[in-house]
Structure prediction request, 434 residues.
Amino acid sequence: MRISLFQGILFGIFGLGAVIGLFVFATYTSNGSGKNAVGTVVIWGTLPKDALQATLVAAGQVDASLKSVSYVEKSPATLVTDLAAAIATGSAPDLVLASQEQLHALAKFIAPVPLSTLSINTFINTFVGEGRLFAAPDGTGYYGIPFLVDPLVLFSNRSILSSSGVAQPPATWEALTGLVPKTALLTPSRQITRALIALGTYNNIRNARGILSSLFLQTGVPLSAYSPGGYLAADLGNGSGGASPGQAALGFYTQFADPSKISYTWNSSLPDSRQAFLAGDLALYIGYASESRFFAAANLNLDFNVTPLPQRATAPEKSAYGLVYAFMIPRGAKNPAGAYQAAVLFTNSVEQTAAASATGLAPAVLSQLAPTPADPVAAVAYAEALYAGGWLSPEPAATDSVFSGMIMDVISGRLNLQSALVSAEQSLSSLLQR
Prediction:
Protein backbone atom coordinates (compact mmCIF):
# COMPACT_ATOMS: atom_id res chain seq x y z
CA MET A 1 0.00 0.00 0.00
CA ARG A 2 2.91 2.40 -0.70
CA ILE A 3 1.98 5.69 -2.36
CA SER A 4 4.06 8.52 -3.79
CA LEU A 5 4.65 11.83 -1.99
CA PHE A 6 2.36 13.61 -4.44
CA GLN A 7 -0.41 11.07 -3.89
CA GLY A 8 0.04 11.37 -0.13
CA ILE A 9 -0.35 15.16 -0.24
CA LEU A 10 -3.34 14.90 -2.60
CA PHE A 11 -5.08 12.27 -0.50
CA GLY A 12 -4.28 14.25 2.66
CA ILE A 13 -6.07 17.31 1.28
CA PHE A 14 -9.07 15.25 0.20
CA GLY A 15 -9.05 13.38 3.50
CA LEU A 16 -9.00 16.59 5.58
CA GLY A 17 -12.02 17.91 3.72
CA ALA A 18 -13.88 14.65 4.26
CA VAL A 19 -13.10 14.55 7.98
CA ILE A 20 -14.16 18.17 8.47
CA GLY A 21 -17.40 17.46 6.65
CA LEU A 22 -18.06 14.36 8.72
CA PHE A 23 -17.27 16.11 11.99
CA VAL A 24 -20.19 18.45 11.41
CA PHE A 25 -22.44 15.43 11.71
CA ALA A 26 -20.79 13.91 14.78
CA THR A 27 -24.10 14.01 16.64
CA TYR A 28 -26.17 12.80 13.68
CA THR A 29 -28.06 9.55 14.32
CA SER A 30 -30.42 7.41 12.31
CA ASN A 31 -33.25 8.68 14.50
CA GLY A 32 -32.90 12.02 12.77
CA SER A 33 -34.24 10.66 9.48
CA GLY A 34 -34.88 13.51 7.08
CA LYS A 35 -33.78 16.19 9.57
CA ASN A 36 -30.80 17.22 7.45
CA ALA A 37 -30.64 17.28 3.69
CA VAL A 38 -28.55 14.47 2.21
CA GLY A 39 -28.29 16.16 -1.14
CA THR A 40 -26.98 14.48 -4.26
CA VAL A 41 -25.05 11.31 -3.46
CA VAL A 42 -23.57 8.98 -6.07
CA ILE A 43 -22.77 5.42 -4.98
CA TRP A 44 -20.43 3.10 -6.81
CA GLY A 45 -20.88 -0.51 -5.78
CA THR A 46 -20.33 -4.15 -6.69
CA LEU A 47 -23.82 -5.40 -5.83
CA PRO A 48 -26.31 -5.85 -8.72
CA LYS A 49 -27.86 -2.61 -9.93
CA ASP A 50 -31.44 -3.89 -10.08
CA ALA A 51 -31.43 -4.92 -6.43
CA LEU A 52 -29.84 -1.68 -5.25
CA GLN A 53 -32.15 0.42 -7.40
CA ALA A 54 -35.15 -1.30 -5.82
CA THR A 55 -33.67 -0.52 -2.42
CA LEU A 56 -33.20 3.15 -3.31
CA VAL A 57 -36.77 3.43 -4.57
CA ALA A 58 -38.16 1.91 -1.37
CA ALA A 59 -35.92 4.09 0.78
CA GLY A 60 -36.87 7.25 -1.12
CA GLN A 61 -40.55 6.59 -0.51
CA VAL A 62 -39.93 6.52 3.23
CA ASP A 63 -37.36 9.30 3.47
CA ALA A 64 -37.43 12.02 0.83
CA SER A 65 -33.85 13.02 1.66
CA LEU A 66 -32.68 9.84 -0.09
CA LYS A 67 -34.39 10.59 -3.40
CA SER A 68 -31.25 12.18 -4.83
CA VAL A 69 -29.12 9.12 -4.09
CA SER A 70 -28.13 7.16 -7.21
CA TYR A 71 -26.27 3.91 -7.76
CA VAL A 72 -23.75 2.85 -10.39
CA GLU A 73 -22.81 -0.84 -10.57
CA LYS A 74 -19.08 -1.48 -10.95
CA SER A 75 -17.21 -4.67 -11.73
CA PRO A 76 -15.30 -5.97 -8.70
CA ALA A 77 -12.34 -6.58 -11.01
CA THR A 78 -12.03 -2.90 -11.97
CA LEU A 79 -13.47 -1.07 -8.96
CA VAL A 80 -10.11 -0.12 -7.46
CA THR A 81 -8.58 1.16 -10.69
CA ASP A 82 -11.80 2.97 -11.63
CA LEU A 83 -11.86 4.71 -8.25
CA ALA A 84 -8.20 5.70 -8.45
CA ALA A 85 -8.75 7.24 -11.88
CA ALA A 86 -11.90 9.06 -10.71
CA ILE A 87 -10.11 10.58 -7.73
CA ALA A 88 -7.22 11.69 -9.93
CA THR A 89 -9.61 13.46 -12.33
CA GLY A 90 -11.84 14.99 -9.64
CA SER A 91 -14.84 12.83 -10.46
CA ALA A 92 -14.95 10.52 -7.45
CA PRO A 93 -18.30 9.11 -6.28
CA ASP A 94 -19.61 10.05 -2.85
CA LEU A 95 -19.85 6.49 -1.56
CA VAL A 96 -18.31 3.14 -2.44
CA LEU A 97 -20.20 -0.05 -1.58
CA ALA A 98 -17.94 -3.12 -1.50
CA SER A 99 -17.11 -6.11 0.67
CA GLN A 100 -14.13 -6.69 2.94
CA GLU A 101 -12.48 -8.69 0.14
CA GLN A 102 -11.60 -5.39 -1.54
CA LEU A 103 -11.00 -3.30 1.56
CA HIS A 104 -7.24 -3.77 1.68
CA ALA A 105 -6.86 -2.58 -1.91
CA LEU A 106 -9.35 0.26 -1.44
CA ALA A 107 -8.14 1.55 1.93
CA LYS A 108 -5.63 4.07 0.57
CA PHE A 109 -8.45 5.76 -1.34
CA ILE A 110 -10.89 5.89 1.60
CA ALA A 111 -11.37 8.64 4.21
CA PRO A 112 -12.07 6.85 7.51
CA VAL A 113 -15.04 7.97 9.58
CA PRO A 114 -13.41 9.38 12.76
CA LEU A 115 -14.26 8.08 16.23
CA SER A 116 -15.61 11.53 17.08
CA THR A 117 -18.34 10.80 14.54
CA LEU A 118 -18.80 7.06 15.06
CA SER A 119 -17.58 5.80 18.43
CA ILE A 120 -16.26 2.32 19.11
CA ASN A 121 -19.13 1.49 21.46
CA THR A 122 -21.72 2.65 18.95
CA PHE A 123 -20.11 0.63 16.18
CA ILE A 124 -19.75 -2.68 18.04
CA ASN A 125 -23.21 -2.41 19.58
CA THR A 126 -24.83 -1.64 16.24
CA PHE A 127 -23.19 -3.91 13.67
CA VAL A 128 -22.36 -7.60 13.24
CA GLY A 129 -18.97 -8.74 14.46
CA GLU A 130 -17.52 -9.14 10.98
CA GLY A 131 -18.02 -5.42 10.46
CA ARG A 132 -15.02 -4.78 12.69
CA LEU A 133 -12.82 -5.66 9.74
CA PHE A 134 -13.50 -2.11 8.59
CA ALA A 135 -11.75 -0.60 11.62
CA ALA A 136 -8.72 1.50 10.67
CA PRO A 137 -5.55 -0.26 11.90
CA ASP A 138 -4.35 2.87 13.75
CA GLY A 139 -7.55 2.92 15.82
CA THR A 140 -8.65 6.35 14.61
CA GLY A 141 -11.96 5.36 13.03
CA TYR A 142 -13.73 3.09 10.55
CA TYR A 143 -13.26 2.73 6.82
CA GLY A 144 -16.89 1.81 6.29
CA ILE A 145 -20.40 1.58 7.70
CA PRO A 146 -21.64 -2.02 7.40
CA PHE A 147 -24.76 -2.50 5.30
CA LEU A 148 -25.41 -6.15 4.34
CA VAL A 149 -23.95 -9.62 4.90
CA ASP A 150 -23.88 -12.54 2.46
CA PRO A 151 -22.80 -15.68 4.36
CA LEU A 152 -21.80 -19.03 2.90
CA VAL A 153 -24.53 -21.67 3.30
CA LEU A 154 -25.07 -25.29 2.29
CA PHE A 155 -27.38 -26.03 -0.64
CA SER A 156 -28.73 -29.59 -0.79
CA ASN A 157 -30.41 -31.51 -3.60
CA ARG A 158 -33.33 -33.13 -1.75
CA SER A 159 -33.92 -35.74 -4.45
CA ILE A 160 -30.34 -37.04 -4.37
CA LEU A 161 -30.14 -37.12 -0.59
CA SER A 162 -33.50 -38.84 -0.10
CA SER A 163 -32.80 -41.45 -2.78
CA SER A 164 -29.48 -42.14 -1.04
CA GLY A 165 -31.22 -42.72 2.29
CA VAL A 166 -30.02 -39.44 3.78
CA ALA A 167 -32.75 -37.73 5.80
CA GLN A 168 -31.02 -34.44 6.64
CA PRO A 169 -28.17 -32.39 5.20
CA PRO A 170 -24.99 -32.73 7.30
CA ALA A 171 -24.52 -30.23 10.12
CA THR A 172 -20.86 -31.12 10.67
CA TRP A 173 -17.88 -31.76 8.41
CA GLU A 174 -17.41 -35.15 10.01
CA ALA A 175 -20.95 -36.16 9.09
CA LEU A 176 -20.45 -34.85 5.55
CA THR A 177 -17.36 -37.02 5.01
CA GLY A 178 -19.33 -40.07 6.04
CA LEU A 179 -21.92 -39.45 3.32
CA VAL A 180 -19.49 -39.88 0.42
CA PRO A 181 -19.91 -43.69 0.05
CA LYS A 182 -23.70 -43.36 0.30
CA THR A 183 -24.18 -40.59 -2.21
CA ALA A 184 -21.30 -40.36 -4.71
CA LEU A 185 -21.46 -42.59 -7.78
CA LEU A 186 -18.18 -43.83 -9.25
CA THR A 187 -17.43 -46.24 -12.09
CA PRO A 188 -15.12 -49.25 -11.51
CA SER A 189 -12.29 -47.13 -12.91
CA ARG A 190 -12.99 -44.41 -10.29
CA GLN A 191 -14.62 -42.01 -12.71
CA ILE A 192 -17.12 -39.76 -10.91
CA THR A 193 -20.62 -39.76 -12.40
CA ARG A 194 -22.31 -38.10 -9.43
CA ALA A 195 -20.48 -36.17 -6.71
CA LEU A 196 -21.44 -35.54 -3.12
CA ILE A 197 -19.84 -32.11 -2.85
CA ALA A 198 -17.34 -29.96 -4.72
CA LEU A 199 -14.24 -29.83 -2.50
CA GLY A 200 -10.59 -30.64 -3.07
CA THR A 201 -9.70 -28.72 -6.24
CA TYR A 202 -9.93 -24.97 -6.84
CA ASN A 203 -10.48 -23.65 -10.35
CA ASN A 204 -13.72 -25.56 -11.00
CA ILE A 205 -15.20 -24.87 -7.57
CA ARG A 206 -17.36 -21.78 -7.33
CA ASN A 207 -16.66 -19.90 -4.09
CA ALA A 208 -13.47 -21.91 -3.39
CA ARG A 209 -11.89 -18.82 -1.86
CA GLY A 210 -14.70 -18.48 0.67
CA ILE A 211 -14.89 -22.21 1.38
CA LEU A 212 -11.17 -22.46 2.13
CA SER A 213 -11.38 -19.31 4.24
CA SER A 214 -14.23 -20.87 6.24
CA LEU A 215 -12.21 -23.99 6.98
CA PHE A 216 -9.24 -21.95 8.16
CA LEU A 217 -11.37 -19.63 10.28
CA GLN A 218 -13.23 -22.56 11.84
CA THR A 219 -9.92 -23.99 13.07
CA GLY A 220 -8.90 -20.68 14.59
CA VAL A 221 -6.59 -19.57 11.79
CA PRO A 222 -6.97 -15.79 11.14
CA LEU A 223 -5.47 -15.91 7.60
CA SER A 224 -4.05 -12.40 8.08
CA ALA A 225 -3.06 -10.29 11.06
CA TYR A 226 -1.15 -7.11 11.87
CA SER A 227 2.40 -7.59 13.14
CA PRO A 228 3.79 -5.60 16.11
CA GLY A 229 5.40 -3.32 13.54
CA GLY A 230 2.03 -2.48 12.02
CA TYR A 231 2.41 -4.54 8.85
CA LEU A 232 -0.42 -6.76 7.64
CA ALA A 233 0.87 -10.26 7.00
CA ALA A 234 -0.65 -13.63 6.17
CA ASP A 235 -1.14 -16.22 8.88
CA LEU A 236 -2.24 -19.63 7.61
CA GLY A 237 -1.78 -21.40 10.93
CA ASN A 238 1.20 -23.42 9.83
CA GLY A 239 3.46 -25.28 12.23
CA SER A 240 6.25 -27.80 12.35
CA GLY A 241 3.92 -30.69 13.21
CA GLY A 242 1.23 -32.35 11.16
CA ALA A 243 -1.37 -31.40 13.74
CA SER A 244 -1.15 -27.63 13.12
CA PRO A 245 -4.56 -26.05 12.47
CA GLY A 246 -3.54 -24.79 9.04
CA GLN A 247 -2.40 -28.20 7.89
CA ALA A 248 -5.56 -29.79 9.32
CA ALA A 249 -7.77 -27.39 7.34
CA LEU A 250 -5.82 -27.80 4.10
CA GLY A 251 -5.60 -31.57 4.48
CA PHE A 252 -9.33 -31.85 5.10
CA TYR A 253 -10.13 -29.81 2.00
CA THR A 254 -7.81 -31.63 -0.40
CA GLN A 255 -8.79 -35.16 0.67
CA PHE A 256 -11.96 -34.95 -1.41
CA ALA A 257 -9.85 -34.89 -4.60
CA ASP A 258 -7.61 -37.80 -3.58
CA PRO A 259 -8.63 -40.98 -5.50
CA SER A 260 -6.94 -43.17 -2.89
CA LYS A 261 -9.26 -42.02 -0.11
CA ILE A 262 -12.81 -43.03 0.76
CA SER A 263 -13.77 -39.35 0.76
CA TYR A 264 -12.91 -39.00 -2.97
CA THR A 265 -15.82 -37.29 -4.72
CA TRP A 266 -14.42 -34.48 -6.91
CA ASN A 267 -11.61 -33.79 -9.39
CA SER A 268 -10.40 -31.10 -11.76
CA SER A 269 -11.97 -32.72 -14.84
CA LEU A 270 -15.51 -32.07 -13.59
CA PRO A 271 -17.52 -29.01 -14.65
CA ASP A 272 -18.04 -25.82 -12.67
CA SER A 273 -19.60 -26.77 -9.33
CA ARG A 274 -22.54 -24.38 -9.57
CA GLN A 275 -23.48 -25.70 -12.98
CA ALA A 276 -23.14 -29.26 -11.72
CA PHE A 277 -25.55 -28.54 -8.87
CA LEU A 278 -27.93 -26.75 -11.21
CA ALA A 279 -27.95 -29.78 -13.52
CA GLY A 280 -28.68 -32.16 -10.65
CA ASP A 281 -25.28 -33.89 -10.75
CA LEU A 282 -24.08 -32.65 -7.37
CA ALA A 283 -25.76 -33.47 -4.05
CA LEU A 284 -24.35 -30.60 -1.99
CA TYR A 285 -23.12 -27.16 -3.00
CA ILE A 286 -21.54 -24.50 -0.83
CA GLY A 287 -22.58 -21.05 -1.98
CA TYR A 288 -23.61 -17.64 -0.78
CA ALA A 289 -27.14 -17.15 0.52
CA SER A 290 -27.85 -14.71 -2.32
CA GLU A 291 -27.38 -17.54 -4.85
CA SER A 292 -30.67 -19.09 -3.79
CA ARG A 293 -32.53 -16.82 -6.17
CA PHE A 294 -30.32 -17.85 -9.05
CA PHE A 295 -31.07 -21.55 -8.53
CA ALA A 296 -34.79 -20.95 -8.09
CA ALA A 297 -35.00 -19.03 -11.36
CA ALA A 298 -32.51 -21.05 -13.42
CA ASN A 299 -34.05 -24.50 -12.85
CA LEU A 300 -37.68 -24.69 -11.77
CA ASN A 301 -37.35 -28.46 -11.33
CA LEU A 302 -34.42 -28.27 -8.93
CA ASP A 303 -35.66 -29.34 -5.50
CA PHE A 304 -33.14 -27.80 -3.15
CA ASN A 305 -32.83 -26.88 0.48
CA VAL A 306 -30.66 -24.32 2.29
CA THR A 307 -29.07 -25.03 5.66
CA PRO A 308 -26.17 -23.52 7.64
CA LEU A 309 -22.59 -24.20 6.61
CA PRO A 310 -21.28 -27.34 8.38
CA GLN A 311 -19.14 -26.86 11.48
CA ARG A 312 -16.50 -28.97 13.20
CA ALA A 313 -18.18 -31.41 15.58
CA THR A 314 -15.98 -30.32 18.48
CA ALA A 315 -16.00 -26.59 17.78
CA PRO A 316 -16.97 -24.51 20.83
CA GLU A 317 -18.26 -21.70 18.60
CA LYS A 318 -19.78 -21.45 15.14
CA SER A 319 -18.07 -19.68 12.25
CA ALA A 320 -18.79 -19.22 8.55
CA TYR A 321 -17.15 -17.05 5.95
CA GLY A 322 -19.29 -14.17 4.79
CA LEU A 323 -19.09 -11.11 2.61
CA VAL A 324 -19.87 -8.00 4.63
CA TYR A 325 -20.67 -5.03 2.41
CA ALA A 326 -20.08 -1.54 3.76
CA PHE A 327 -20.46 2.04 2.60
CA MET A 328 -17.11 3.83 2.35
CA ILE A 329 -16.44 7.51 1.67
CA PRO A 330 -13.68 7.95 -0.90
CA ARG A 331 -11.16 10.73 -0.75
CA GLY A 332 -12.25 13.47 -3.10
CA ALA A 333 -15.99 12.89 -2.61
CA LYS A 334 -17.90 16.06 -3.47
CA ASN A 335 -20.50 15.55 -0.75
CA PRO A 336 -18.85 13.62 2.12
CA ALA A 337 -21.25 14.93 4.77
CA GLY A 338 -24.30 13.93 2.73
CA ALA A 339 -22.68 10.60 1.94
CA TYR A 340 -22.24 9.87 5.64
CA GLN A 341 -25.86 10.82 6.34
CA ALA A 342 -27.05 8.54 3.55
CA ALA A 343 -24.97 5.64 4.86
CA VAL A 344 -26.41 6.14 8.36
CA LEU A 345 -29.96 6.26 7.01
CA PHE A 346 -29.41 2.91 5.33
CA THR A 347 -28.95 1.40 8.80
CA ASN A 348 -32.55 2.24 9.68
CA SER A 349 -35.08 -0.57 10.01
CA VAL A 350 -37.05 0.20 6.86
CA GLU A 351 -33.97 0.62 4.69
CA GLN A 352 -32.32 -2.53 6.05
CA THR A 353 -35.47 -4.57 5.49
CA ALA A 354 -35.87 -3.23 1.95
CA ALA A 355 -32.23 -3.91 1.09
CA ALA A 356 -32.30 -7.45 2.49
CA SER A 357 -35.49 -8.22 0.60
CA ALA A 358 -34.19 -6.81 -2.69
CA THR A 359 -30.77 -8.47 -2.58
CA GLY A 360 -31.34 -11.75 -0.73
CA LEU A 361 -28.61 -10.78 1.75
CA ALA A 362 -28.92 -10.34 5.52
CA PRO A 363 -28.89 -7.00 7.36
CA ALA A 364 -25.63 -5.96 8.99
CA VAL A 365 -27.43 -4.18 11.85
CA LEU A 366 -27.78 -6.40 14.92
CA SER A 367 -31.26 -5.19 15.88
CA GLN A 368 -32.58 -6.22 12.46
CA LEU A 369 -31.33 -9.80 12.88
CA ALA A 370 -33.31 -10.49 16.05
CA PRO A 371 -36.68 -11.40 14.45
CA THR A 372 -36.54 -14.70 12.53
CA PRO A 373 -37.77 -14.17 8.93
CA ALA A 374 -40.57 -16.36 7.59
CA ASP A 375 -38.57 -17.13 4.46
CA PRO A 376 -36.44 -20.24 5.20
CA VAL A 377 -33.41 -19.06 3.22
CA ALA A 378 -33.47 -15.66 4.89
CA ALA A 379 -33.78 -17.36 8.28
CA VAL A 380 -30.51 -19.23 7.66
CA ALA A 381 -28.77 -16.11 6.30
CA TYR A 382 -29.88 -13.99 9.27
CA ALA A 383 -28.68 -16.57 11.77
CA GLU A 384 -25.31 -16.99 10.07
CA ALA A 385 -24.77 -13.24 9.75
CA LEU A 386 -24.38 -13.15 13.54
CA TYR A 387 -21.32 -15.40 13.47
CA ALA A 388 -19.98 -14.71 9.98
CA GLY A 389 -16.27 -13.97 9.72
CA GLY A 390 -13.70 -12.87 7.20
CA TRP A 391 -10.18 -11.52 6.80
CA LEU A 392 -8.28 -8.69 5.15
CA SER A 393 -7.02 -10.22 1.94
CA PRO A 394 -5.33 -9.10 -1.26
CA GLU A 395 -7.66 -8.44 -4.17
CA PRO A 396 -9.80 -11.51 -4.97
CA ALA A 397 -7.99 -12.39 -8.21
CA ALA A 398 -4.61 -12.31 -6.49
CA THR A 399 -5.88 -14.40 -3.57
CA ASP A 400 -7.35 -16.92 -6.00
CA SER A 401 -4.00 -17.26 -7.75
CA VAL A 402 -2.22 -18.04 -4.48
CA PHE A 403 -4.89 -20.40 -3.15
CA SER A 404 -5.16 -22.21 -6.49
CA GLY A 405 -1.43 -22.76 -6.58
CA MET A 406 -1.44 -24.03 -3.00
CA ILE A 407 -4.19 -26.57 -3.73
CA MET A 408 -2.53 -27.75 -6.94
CA ASP A 409 0.78 -28.20 -5.14
CA VAL A 410 -0.92 -30.53 -2.64
CA ILE A 411 -3.18 -32.60 -4.87
CA SER A 412 -0.45 -33.08 -7.46
CA GLY A 413 1.97 -34.25 -4.79
CA ARG A 414 4.45 -31.51 -5.67
CA LEU A 415 4.54 -30.22 -2.08
CA ASN A 416 3.40 -31.57 1.27
CA LEU A 417 0.90 -29.68 3.41
CA GLN A 418 3.48 -27.78 5.41
CA SER A 419 5.52 -26.66 2.40
CA ALA A 420 2.43 -25.63 0.47
CA LEU A 421 1.26 -23.49 3.40
CA VAL A 422 4.67 -21.86 3.78
CA SER A 423 4.76 -20.94 0.09
CA ALA A 424 1.19 -19.59 0.10
CA GLU A 425 1.77 -17.62 3.29
CA GLN A 426 4.85 -15.96 1.84
CA SER A 427 3.01 -15.06 -1.38
CA LEU A 428 0.02 -13.62 0.45
CA SER A 429 2.24 -11.59 2.79
CA SER A 430 4.10 -10.14 -0.17
CA LEU A 431 0.80 -9.09 -1.76
CA LEU A 432 -0.53 -7.60 1.48
CA GLN A 433 2.57 -5.45 1.98
CA ARG A 434 2.64 -3.89 -1.46
Q: What stands out?
A: The domain at 5-150+323-389 is CATH 3.40.190.10 (D-Maltodextrin-Binding Protein; domain 2).
